[in-house]
């Protein structure tokens, strides 16, 4: 649905350049899955992690919320989503050496977001940084880095964050012996 909304926006704006950029998503997504599927399986299967925080600002905040929801539903893991700067206040009190912080780093506020990741690592968290480019040193000394290397603008590449993080939730569910297709206490339709 997220990708469909991007396509519809491009069609409504009659923006052929944007639509052409979206056409590159399958190839870039395939490369990401080929290169980083083992990493997300490792992180998802690591049951020493007991809480996961998804950080995203601006257009990535909604993606942070979506990936947090998938982690909760599929794996019954304590997970929360925050704006990077909001996390620096009270929520960071939950960070310890059993915490995974996933940072969806943007172009526009990269410097501030990297400072938050660096701080969370200093508090003991393991940090997974996902960004258009960069290595561990460029991304606050993150323990794990997924460079998208899409060459796409932020407005087009957001969907690339989702498959890897949803796959991580799947592997966590499997490691806990849960059925990710049948989340506990959830129904396909909610009647009021």
Could you please describe the fold and organization of this structure?
The chain has a five-stranded parallel sheet, with helices on both faces. The protein has helices at 2-12, 16-22, 25-45, 61-75, 84-87, 110-122, 154-157, 161-175, and strands at residues 51-56, 78-82, 99-104, 126-131, 144-147. It has eight helices and five strands; from the N terminus they run H-H-H-E-H-E-H-E-H-E-E-H-H. The chain has a single domain (2-175), classed as Glucose-6-phosphate isomerase like protein, domain 1 (Rossmann fold). The protein is of the alpha/beta class. Helix 1 (2-12) packs antiparallel against helix 2 (16-22) and helix 4 (61-75) packs parallel to helix 8. The model has no long low-confidence stretch (mean pLDDT 93). Helix content is 47%, strand content 14%.
- Order of the strands making up the biggest sheet: 2-1-3-4-5
Morphology: globular
Strand content: 5-15%
The level of helicity is: 40-55%
Indicate how many domains the architecture comprises: 1
What is the structural class?
alpha/beta
Assign the CATH class: Alpha Beta
Mean pLDDT: 93
CATH architecture: 3-Layer(aba) Sandwich
Low-confidence stretches: none
Sheet with the most strands, sense and barrel status: 5 strands, parallel
């Amino acid at each position: 649905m997220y990708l469909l909304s991007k396509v519809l926006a491009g069609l409504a704006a009659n923006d052929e350049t944007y639509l052409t950029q979206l056409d590159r998503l399958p190839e870039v997504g395939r490369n990401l899955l080929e290169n980083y599927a083992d990493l997300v399986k490792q992180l998802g299967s690591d049951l020493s992690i007991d809480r996961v925080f998804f950080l995203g600002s601006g257009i990535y905040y909604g993606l942070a919320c979506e990936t947090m929801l998938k982690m909760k539903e599929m794996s019954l893991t304590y997970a929360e989503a925050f704006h990077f700067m909001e996390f620096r206040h009270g929520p960071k009190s939950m960070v310890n050496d059993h915490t995974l912080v996933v940072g969806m780093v943007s172009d526009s506020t990269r410097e501030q977001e990297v400072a938050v990741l660096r701080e969370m690592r200093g508090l003991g968290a393991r940090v997974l940084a996902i960004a258009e480019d960069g290595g561990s040193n460029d991304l606050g000394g993150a323990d794990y880095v997924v460079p998208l290397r899409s060459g796409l603008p932020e407005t087009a590449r957001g969907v690339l964050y989702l498959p890897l993080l949803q796959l991580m939730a799947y592997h966590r569910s499997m490691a806990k012996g849960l059925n990710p297709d049948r989340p506990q206490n959830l129904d396909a339709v909610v009647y009021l």
